[in-house]
Amino acid sequence: MSLFGLGRNQKTFRPKKSAPSGSKGAQLRKHIDATLGSGNLREAVRLPPGEDINEWLAVNTVDFFNQVNLLYGTLAEFCTPESCPTMTAGPKYEYRWADGVQIKKPIEVSAPKYVEYLMDWIEGQLDDESIFPQKLGTPFPPNFKEVVKTIFKRLFRVYAHIYHSHFQKIVSLKEEAHLNTCFKHFILFTTEFGLIDKKELAPLQELIESIIPY
Amino acid sequence: MDSARSWLQKLQPRDKDRGKPASPTAARKDGAAAMAEDGEEAISSTTATKVAAAKQFIENHYKDQMRSLEERKERRRMLESKLADPDVSEEEQNNILKDFENREREIMRSRRHKMGVDDFELLTIIGRGAFGEVRLCREKATSNVYAMKKLKKSEMLRRGQVEHVRAERNLLAEVDSAYIVKLYCSFQDEEFLYLVMEYLPGGDMMTLLMRKDTLTDDESRFYVAETILAIESIHKHNYIHRDIKPDNLLLDRTGHLKLSDFGLCKPLDSSSFPNLSEFDYAVGKNINPSMDGDKLLSSSAAPRRTQQEQLLHWQKNRRMLVC
């Protein structure tokens, strides 16, 4: 087991080979242009001159956590164990939970339970002074970027679930511009610093290509 | 995270009552606050509040982010003009650059800082309540003085008051009005919840009434008007206070009134309002409704009531309204 409970080889991401490839991505793609006038996000993600990369990763990790947390929180009434008995990103992708500490073997849980585990786990990392130091002068751990990569990989899964299972509700709540802005910012940031493997991004591939053409 | 005074810390998305997924029935208890455009089921006022808060937070976050980006660029430009000065030696340049980068690192780290009780110097106790105390405190970083409400979690759980406290925190974070006491930030530890609010040194209306005994007409008009504006500002955000009394009307240093203590406040759901029609009022006044040109209602729709019956009817409706 790796330090901070980051099991790297966990089979928590399960693409289903037999699943039909629908046009969900194309549908979502039509909506991605609705964003807030939030300035130049490409510029906003770049490491400022002279800044320590770990400080920059840390402050943005907290910001992205807060955004995902708030956006998913608005769906609490609709994302229930009944409506979402498993954590999926469309018919083709399913996620299982393991943190490598309390739950070593990946388990299948409902989407709200998965997100609860995930958010609690991330919050535990953010509150751990040895991982995300707040006191001035305290250094970041040597494997800090690996911790950040795991956090971003898991936050992406919440976005994938929201877009695939609850996007219509987001539209009816008139939240799509806010969701899209946060997601665009998130993807631009992960691309800038290479935080998520390409295969992990597959559930929202078409959407991502409309943000960053490969 | 954004600066300490920002909306983020008023809302504290990273605190533990993060809005864990509730059951659909629990979420719908408040009734329908808004209807989905596509005619789907109505959303609860809890969800409507969360959506409004999330949107506000995200919009503010991006505004703040763009502003801090510009401020950083400006600081960099000033640094470069300082370094371009031919009188500055190479060693001095290195020191200036190092100093600049350390300061920027501090700014960056302070953005992640989570407020806690250690950030405040605790001063005198200015009040005690069922769940804890209210203390005067001074923020160490700025020397600003606040009132810190400290609430014991176990006591709140025992008395089933968690939702009331959450409603109080949400309302204070959401409503930005000159007539409502301001919430600076909220946080928690293992044992207590903390609400850090603006300190109002003018005391409360109860003390003023006891001291003055009688207010002049002008004073009464002034305070009643400000009370109405305060109540209106929370009604606009779909909350009802349910505990309006002189003790909860506080005065700032200039004598203006602010409403406080939202421990009993409740999100308002207009769909569950009892039907308090003008017609009921007319019956209470013993006016024949059929004489009213605007309201030609059949007698079967509204039976005639005596004043005593009307009073009981009104009291019942009033109870329904605050339940």
TrEMBL record, chain A:
Keywords: Kinase, Transferase. The keyword Cell cycle does not apply. Residues 1-26 are annotated as: Disordered. GO terms for biological process: signal transduction. One of its GO terms (molecular function) is kinase activity. The keyword Cell membrane does not apply. Pfam families: Mob1_phocein. PANTHER family: MPS ONE BINDER KINASE ACTIVATOR-LIKE MOB. This is Mps one binder kinase activator-like 1A, putative, expressed. It comes from Oryza sativa subsp. japonica (Rice). The lineage of its organism: Eukaryota, Viridiplantae, Streptophyta, Embryophyta, Tracheophyta.
TrEMBL record, chain B:
CDD domains: MobB_NDR_LATS-like (cd21742). It holds the Pfam family Pkinase. Residues 1-47, 70-90 are annotated as: Disordered. Residues 120-323 form the Protein kinase domain. Gene3D superfamilies: Phosphorylase Kinase, domain 1 (3.30.200.20), Transferase(Phosphotransferase) domain 1 (1.10.510.10). Residues 32-47 have a biased composition (Low complexity). One of its GO terms (molecular function) is protein serine/threonine kinase activity. Its EC number is 2.7.11.1. It catalyses: L-seryl-[protein] + ATP = O-phospho-L-seryl-[protein] + ADP + H(+); L-threonyl-[protein] + ATP = O-phospho-L-threonyl-[protein] + ADP + H(+). Keywords: ATP-binding, Kinase, Nucleotide-binding, Serine/threonine-protein kinase, Transferase. ATP binds at K149. Residues 70-85 have a biased composition (Basic and acidic residues). SUPFAM superfamilies: Protein kinase-like (PK-like) (SSF56112). The keyword Kinase applies. Belongs to the protein kinase superfamily. This is non-specific serine/threonine protein kinase. It comes from Oryza sativa subsp. japonica. The lineage of its organism: Eukaryota, Viridiplantae, Streptophyta, Embryophyta, Tracheophyta.
